[in-house]
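Teaching assistant here, posting this on the class forum so everyone can see the example we discussed in section. The complex has four components, and the goal was to see what a joint structure prediction looks like when all of them are supplied at once.
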Amino acid sequence: MSSKLRTKDEIVALFADGQTIVVGGFANHGVPDALIDCVLDSGARHLTLLSNDTGDADLTIGRLVHAGRVDKVVASHIGMNTETVALVASGKIEVTLVPQGSLAERMRCGGAGLGGVLTKTGLGTVAEKGKTIVEVDGERWLLEPALRGDVGLVRARSADPIGNLTYRGTCRNFNPLVARAAAVTVVEADMLVELDEIEGDSVVTPGVYVDMILAK
Amino acid sequence: MSSKLRTKDEIVALFADGQTIVVGGFANHGVPDALIDCVLDSGARHLTLLSNDTGDADLTIGRLVHAGRVDKVVASHIGMNTETVALVASGKIEVTLVPQGSLAERMRCGGAGLGGVLTKTGLGTVAEKGKTIVEVDGERWLLEPALRGDVGLVRARSADPIGNLTYRGTCRNFNPLVARAAAVTVVEADMLVELDEIEGDSVVTPGVYVDMILAK
Amino acid sequence: MDIRHRMAKRAAAYFAAGDIVNLGIGVPSLCNNYAPPGVMFHTENGLIGVGPLAEGLQRVESFSNANGMRFVPMPGASVFDSAESFAIVRSGRLAATVLGGLQVSEKGDLANWARPGKMVGMGGAMDLVNGARKVIVTMELTAKGAPKILKACTYPLTGAACVDHIVTEQCVIDVTPEGLVLREVLDGVTPEEIQRQVEPTLVVADDLAIMAA
Amino acid sequence: MDIRHRMAKRAAAYFAAGDIVNLGIGVPSLCNNYAPPGVMFHTENGLIGVGPLAEGLQRVESFSNANGMRFVPMPGASVFDSAESFAIVRSGRLAATVLGGLQVSEKGDLANWARPGKMVGMGGAMDLVNGARKVIVTMELTAKGAPKILKACTYPLTGAACVDHIVTEQCVIDVTPEGLVLREVLDGVTPEEIQRQVEPTLVVADDLAIMAA
C-alpha cells in the first residue's frame, strides 16, 4: 500500500492527443482547476470533453475550449460558455447534448461495469434520436448507454494517501461519478490528510477508484 | 416540515396480505429487527420478501419465514436459513435467486425511476433464464429489470426527524437501496437525533426517501 | 405586485409543508419567497435544503445552486452527487418543479430549452418534467403578441404530456384529460380575452376564480 | 503445512502490494494470513480494509464480513452500500478474487454455487468472477476420486470462461487460450499423475516448477 501522491509532471505526462477527458464540476463550481492546468501544460489536443458543462468562457473547464484543445463535447448544457456556443455554431466543435440525469447515470454505468440504463427521460424528444427503445413488460424505456473516458479529473475536499475522498456541499456534483468513469482517475484535493483521518463511514469515493493524487 | 416519527401502532397498520416487503440487512447484520416485529404484529400473510437473504432460521428476517408469512422470496442467497431451504424444497415458498450485484442494481433502479440496467453478470448461466439480452455496439448484455416493493424496512445508525440517515460499517449493506425501492419507506434507527445534528455532507440517505421513522 | 412576482406567488400556492420542490431559473426562482413554511428546495447539482442567498462570509463555493448563485443551506440539508440527485427527481420524490416555458401544447407538451437551430442544452429540465409529481410552468401568455399556448409545440420538446399547471400574468390554466381548463383570471379579464391569446379552445371552469393581482 | 493452508498460501502469492482482493469462504478466507503487506481486502457486504478477526470489545455488529464473522477494520478502510460494492467488483477494480470450486472446465468455466437440484443462491459469486481482474480457484483436484477439472462442467455455472488460475493440493494449473497449462506440481508428483486426475489434456509448462509443500 503505497501513496498515490504524484508530482504535477507525472500527471501532465498522462495526457495525449485524442483522449476523452472526464471532468467534475458544475457551472464553474467544484471544478479541478489545477488538473486542468495539467491538461493545458501537456499540450494535448483534439480532446473529447465529457462533463456537465464547459464552464464560462476561459474560466474553469472553459479554459480547455479557449485554448483550442477540444474537438468534441458531451454535456448537458453549454449555454453559459459563449466561446463553446460560437465554436459549435461554426462547426469547429461537435457537441452531444445529454439530459443531466441521464449523463450522470451514463457515467455511473461506465464506472460500474454496466452497459447502460433504461430511463423515461427524453422519451418523445430529440434525446431519443439514434437511441434504442427497450420494452419491459409493455412499457417503453430509452436505453442510455454507458460513457467512459481515458482520464478522469476529480476535485475533492479531502484525500488520504490511498485516495479515499470526501467532498463539500454542492462541489460534490459530478465528481464522484467522474472518479469511476475513466481508465485513469486523478484527484485534486483542497486538503491532503493522513491515512485513516477520513473515517470509513464518511468516505464518499473509496480509494479503490483513485489512481493518482496531485501533490501540493 | 413536520416530524416523521411514528408510533409502532401506526407502522403496524401499514402492512397487508400479499404485499412485497423490501428488507435491509446482510446475513443477520444491519437488519431492522424492530420493524420485522411490526410486520409480525400486523398479521400480514402471503408476503413477497425482497432482500439479500432470509437470515438464519427464526433469526432476524428469518422470523417472517418461521411464522409462515412468506410465499415468495427474491434474494441472492437463502442457504443460511434451513427453514427457507426446506420450504422451498417442499414447494411452500417460491424463490427467485438473483446475483447479489444485480439485486442491488435492480433495487437501485426501482428507487431511481429507472427501468433496468445492463450487466455482464450471469451471462452464460441460469441467471440468463427468462431475461432479455440487449446488444450495445455488438456487445451482449443481460437486462436486469427494476425491482420495487410496497413497504421498505431500513435499519439506520442515526435518523433526524425528517429522515436524513447515516449507517455504521457493514450494517449499511442493502439498507440505502431499500430506502429508495418501495412505495413507503420506514426506518428503524439506533439513535434518533435532532434536526441538523447530521451534517449535510455526512447524510447517506437523504430524508426525501423516508416516510416514517419508528419512535422509541 | 409586479407580474413576475405575481406569477411566482401564484405558483408557490401549489406547494404544501413537507414538499420538496425544484425551482428553475428566472420567475420560478422567485417562488421561494412565497412558499409556505416547511417546504424544502432541491437544487439539481446536489442538495435539498437550499436557503436564502448568501452574503459576506456565507458566500462559499461549496453552496451554490444550479444557476451558480451562492446560498445558505437550511437546517436538515442533505448533500448528494448528481446521480443521486436525479434518482430523487426521476423517482417522483419531488412534489413539484416550477419551470419557465417557451411553448405549451394542449396535451401538456412543454418546449422550454431550445429554439430551432439554437440548442445549447436541456440541463436537468427533461429529467425534472419527467419525474416531478407536479410540473408547473410560469410564463407570459404570449410572446410579442403571438400565442405560446398552442395546439402543438413547434420548438424542440422538453417533455411530452408533462405539464400540470400553467401560471401566466393574466390567468391560471390546468392541463386535464378534458383539455386546457381555465381556472383563474385576473380581475377584469374575461375568459374571451384569454381565449383570443391562446390557440387551443379552453374549457372555462365552472368555479372560475379571480387570480390575485 | 496442511493442505488447506498450502493452497491458501499459494493463491496469496498472486497478490501484490496495492491490490484489493475479495476472498470467498473456506480455504480462500485463509489467504489473508499469507498476503504480502499492502494488500487490502474487500468484503462484498460493503467495505474495503477487512482486518483480522475481532476479539472482545472489538466484536461489533457493524464490522462483519460476508460470512457473518466480526473483524477489525484496517486504517484507510472505506465503507459503501451493496450497489457501490458491486460497482467496484464489476468494473475491474478488484485485482483478484479467490473462490472455492466444484468444477472447472478446460475453457475456464466455473461451477461453484450449486449442485443440480440444490440451488440455494449464488450470492456475489457471479459478479465476482465476471469482474475481478484475476479469478483464482482453490479446490482439491478430485472429489471422492472423481475429477473436478472437466472438459465441460455438468453443474450450473457461476461464470463462463472466467477462471485464470486453479490452485489444488497437488498442483497449480493456468487457464490459457492454448488450454490448461500445468505450472507447478508438488515435489515427487509427476505430470502423468496429475493428468490421470483431470479430464482434459493438460499442457505441461516448459518451466514446470515445484509447488511449495
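For the discussion questions: The mean pLDDT of chain C is 96. The helical segments of chain C are 3-12, 82-90, 125-131, 191-196. Think about how each of these relates to the inputs above.
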